[in-house]
Amino acid sequence: MPYGQFPYQRPRRLRISSAIRDMVAENHLKPADFIAPVFVMEGENMKEEIPSMPDYFRYTLDLLMDEIRELKEVGIRSVLVFVKVPDDKKDNKGTEALNEQGLMQRSVRTIKKEFPDMLVMTDIALDPYSSYGHDGIVEEGEILNDESVEVLAEIAVSHARAGADYVAPSDMMDGRIGAMRDALDDDGFKHTGIMAYSAKYASSYYGPFRDALDSAPGFGDKKTYQMDPSNVREAVKEARMDEQEGADIVMVKPGLPYLDVIRAVKESVQLPVSVYNVSGEYAMLKAAAANGWLDEEEAMMEALIGFKRAGADLIATYFAKAASKLLNRK
Ligand code: PBG
């Protein structure tokens, strides 16, 4: 019997007790790995459950503070802020996105004032502000690139001015990372970071998120700017371009159907890689758990460790709080 094979090797010896399993675990999760997305709406003293995202809420800014306190208490270090913009403030150029008194800017200022240590990231794209629900400016049915990039760079500066630690462009226009880096530097925001949604796919898994923000595209789809799910080389190209344009963190989105993309990107750039475990992935698991078809906690933790195994350093997830609580209990 050749040495190195059964019975000299019995892999089950490394699985025989929880002590040994914990000791040899190759990947680990901790609350600081998570980025918690938060949805903010206008008003006072209200929270609304998002119908397609059970147990996940939109908060008015006052109540959001209680939620962030809880996130902090369980060990989460960063939030990614999204705002729901009233319809009458939407237009083609997303003008409201630049309003210094806009909901995003107020949210960032308030969070940073109450929780200076919480790392605040802001989503940058036109869709929540766009009357067309697209991520860029629309002209005759086309999503303009360079014109959109100009506005997006101004939005980045506006968020930085409000106190954002990181801006997170999710629009997928070409050249936006370089433009944002230049704009931020020109305005003196050299320490404001960029987490680039580098490989963001045109995905059906964003459906519940668009319900949360009422931001579904009014016509067509996002396939002329978000990526084709068939592609992985293209993801590597996008991530490398963003690295060269000055991104600090690159992201792959969605998560579970794209674990191979996380791995490919991880091996191609020298930056931390994050993954966005998106709304549809959350909804899917919650729905199965609600039906008693899956064990919610176990399925959640298995998905999250899967991201780590694939190569993700950071995980934006609606499970951030629930998973952190579980990790703290262990
Ligand atoms: C906005 C944006 C979207 C998501 C994050 N930022 C939606 C989209 O591109 O249509 C999706 C997040 C999720 O589904 O959880 N550009």
Summarize the structure.
38% of the residues lie in helices and 19% in strands. It is of the alpha/beta class and 330 residues long.
Features:
single chain; 330 residues; alpha/beta; TIM Barrel; eight-stranded parallel β-barrel; two-stranded antiparallel ribbon; 11 helices; 12 strands; binds ligand PBG
Account of the protein in words:
This protein is α/β, with parallel strands linked by helices. It has a single domain (31-325), classed as Aldolase class I (TIM Barrel, Alpha-Beta Barrel), CATH 3.20.20.70. It is 38% helix and 19% strand. The protein is built from eleven helices and twelve strands. The protein has helices at 18-24, 61-73, 103-114, 146-162, 176-186, 207-213, 233-245, 259-266, 279-290, 296-310, 320-329; strands spanning 34-41, 47-50, 53-60, 78-83, 119-124, 138-139, 142-143, 166-169, 193-200, 249-253, 273-277, 314-317. The strands form two sheets. An eight-stranded parallel barrel has the order 1-4-5-8-9-10-11-12, surrounded by nine helices. The chain has a two-stranded antiparallel ribbon with strand order 6-7. Strand 6 (138-139) and strand 7 form a beta hairpin. Helix 3 (103-114) packs parallel to helix 4. The longest helix is centred in the middle third of the chain and has 17 residues, at 146-162. Ligand PBG binds next to helix 6.
